[in-house]
Known about the structure:
CATH superfamily: Histone deacetylase domain
Organism: Meiothermus hypogaeus NBRC 106114
Strand content: 5-15%
Number of strands: 8
Radius of gyration: 17 Å
Strand order of the largest sheet: 3-8-7-4-5-6
Family: Belongs to the histone deacetylase family.
CATH architecture: 3-Layer(aba) Sandwich
CATH class: Alpha Beta
Domain Histone deacetylase: 18-274
Number of domains: 1
Largest sheet: 6 strands, parallel
CATH topology: Arginase, Chain A
Distance between the termini: 9 Å
Number of helices: 10
InterPro entries: HDAC_classIV (IPR044150), HDACs (IPR000286), His_deacetylse_dom (IPR023801), His_deacetylse_dom_sf (IPR037138), Ureohydrolase_dom_sf (IPR023696)
Helix content: 40-55%
Structural class: alpha/beta
Order of helices and strands: EHEHHHHEHEHEEHEHEH
Protein name: Histone deacetylase
Mean pLDDT: 97
Amino acid sequence: MYRAYSTSHCILELPEYHPFPKYKYSGVAEALKQDLNIQPAPAITWETLALAHTHDYLQKLRTEGLSRQEAHKVGLPWTQSLLTRALHAAGGTLAATQDALATGLGLNLAGGTHHAYPGRAEGYCLFNDVAVAIAHLRTGGWRGRALVVDLDAHQGNGTAVFFRHDPHVFTLSVHAERNYPLKKEQSDLDVGLSDATGDAEYLEALEPALEQAFVFRPDLVFFNAGVDVLQNDRFGRLGLSLSGLAERDRRVFAKAKQAHVPLVVVMGGGYNRDPRITVTAHAQTYRLALEVLCAC
């Protein structure tokens, strides 16, 4: 049974009215407990974070935290519980990356915090977990090529900045063009979609983007599998159905399988107005990863 890492053991303190879907982390872990060996995500070390993030930024988080203005930009009130959960979410992605290199598939039931920049937090994201994982691999001597397939509804702006001048990382972002962030960064390949884009149009745009991305011939793939592309999402602005989402995921998994390349799946966003849909959609992604890549 494959392992997956979860932050469901982390308590995030938020006002009752806050739209951040903290319920989904425990909900997805519960939904998948018969399919996966679910482990508490370990906390990442500050030394590992320093391989990707700036010293001043990390020192600020350790000593004083975010100011009220900075927390507003993140969209979450600053608390120790926010920091603790972010440390475990990034640690889950690093552990999943190590699993992927060992077994071919790594799964984090959190992560995908693609709005974090080297020196600042933004958009619910304190640490860029994928950037940190790649930096850690390189410190250990890994010299491969990484592909980031970011299919969250929002552009992976922080990730684009981390790897803008890195010839050994290819960043693909397929997102709602008019959505957050207002100012887009430049990925290696950006595909901006119109509001309310549905299944057929989405998949038509996705296929050539994946083809182009896999021409890069990666040695490792990170898949940000955000489900905020679904219709009725609070923040996504796109219009996929659950079946369209499943086909999106199958195509990514099939490309990785065809290329014989290890894959890391991170959760990304999902804010459906019906919480049950958010949990169902995320769980569907991880089950499809097992179905396509493991034939189990």
